[in-house]
Design a protein that fits this description.
141 residues; three-stranded antiparallel sheet; 5 strands; single chain; alpha+beta; elongated
Length: 141
């Protein structure tokens, strides 16, 4: 069987278990002519265990209007805010500190994010997470 030809790759971030045909899903997938409800049902079924967490998704749309999708790990900033117990990061990250997380929490986040990071080892992943925390105005103690 020949490989299907890829027509488009769409990346969107949707809250787990709460996808609906409304924007952003409908506006991202509608122009490509795929069955939006089929995607919504499949996405919600796969992510219902992580309800409430934002999960980035990479949707590959093929020429015959079929699709496949890959679920990624939650954004680093979301994981950092959860660990710090914050709703929002600092408004002025360079001068203002919104909260703090521990080195152990940084390690946990790095382990979760490792499949999606371009880091060779856990130490490099920790540095990336620390940099994201710093840019959010969250101190690593």
């Amino acid at each position: 069987m020949a490989k299907k030809k890829v027509m488009a790759v769409v990346k969107i971030q949707i809250e787990a278990g709460k996808a609906s045909p409304a924007p952003p899903v409908g506006t991202a997938l509608g122009p490509h002519g795929i069955a939006i409800m089929d995607f919504v049902k499949a996405y919600n079924a796969q992510t219902e265990a992580n309800a409430g967490t934002v999960i980035p998704t990479e949707i590959t749309i093929f020429e015959d209007r079929t699709f496949s999708f890959i679920l990624k790990t939650p954004p680093t900033s979301t994981l950092i805010r959860e660990k710090a117990g914050l709703d929002k990061a600092a408004h002025n990250p360079g001068t203002e500190t919104a909260g703090s997380i521990t080195a152990a929490q940084v390690a946990e986040i790095a382990e979760i994010k490792m499949p999606d990071l371009n880091a060779n080892d856990l130490d490099a992943a920790k540095l990336q997470v620390e940099g994201t925390a710093r840019s959010m105005g969250i101190e690593v103690v």
